[in-house]
Design a protein that fits this description.
The protein has 143 residues and is of the alpha+beta class. The chain has a single domain, classed as Nucleoside diphosphate kinase-like domain (Alpha-Beta Plaits, 2-Layer Sandwich). It is built from seven helices and four strands, in the order E-H-H-E-H-H-E-H-H-E-H. A four-stranded antiparallel sheet has the order 2-3-1-4, with helices on both faces. The longest helix is centred in the C-terminal third of the chain and has 11 residues. Bound molecules: adenosine-3',5'-cyclic-monophosphate.
């Protein structure tokens, strides 16, 4: 097993539901430790950076408006197989298909307002983490 870093973004609808603490607890309970954390209101350019591959999709405008509507919380998570385990805890993109106990099953409103984002791969995680965090903003956890 590999000790990895990944990024999660708690989306505006989850912020409005006051479940930041519950979401962080789910990660910590699953040994995905918080080594970086920021709350910010994303800009158009930041949303475009994260979702560049979707910029020509029909849903992009709705996704953009949603992502800039309120602050988000950025979490750098550290743990064994963090990228894949983060995605399991988050659940399916479409909450209709999300399994019981996942974050999206509990807090997503629909496929766009789906409560949380998780990096898709190790390469994407690196790109997303270092776009939002300087190296010295990531805590070096002692085990
Ligand atoms: P996320 O995992 O953050 O990555 C891309 C986002 O685009 C996704 O979550 C949803 O918020 C949104 N998305 C993906 N597919 C669709 C779709 N078919 N319709 C609407 N929004 C989508």
């Amino acid at each position: 097993m590999m000790l990895e870093h990944t990024l999660s973004i708690i989306k505006p609808n989850a912020i409005n539901k006051n479940v930041i603490g519950d979401i962080i607890k789910r990660f910590e309970d699953n040994k995905l430790f918080i080594v970086g954390l920021k709350m910010l209101k994303l800009s158009f350019h930041q949303v475009l950076f994260i979702y560049d591959e979707h910029k020509n999709k029909l849903f992009f405008d709705d996704l953009l408006q949603f992502m800039i509507s309120n602050p988000v919380v950025l979490l750098v998570l550290e743990g064994y197989n963090a990228v894949d385990r983060n995605r399991l805890i988050i659940g399916h993109t479409n909450p209709v298909h999300a399994t019981h106990g996942t974050i999206r099953k509990d807090y997503a409103d629909n496929i766009t307002e789906n409560a949380i984002h998780g990096s898709a791969s190790k390469e994407v995680a690196k790109k997303e983490i270092y776009y939002f965090f300087k190296k010295d903003e990531i805590y070096k956890k002692i085990y």
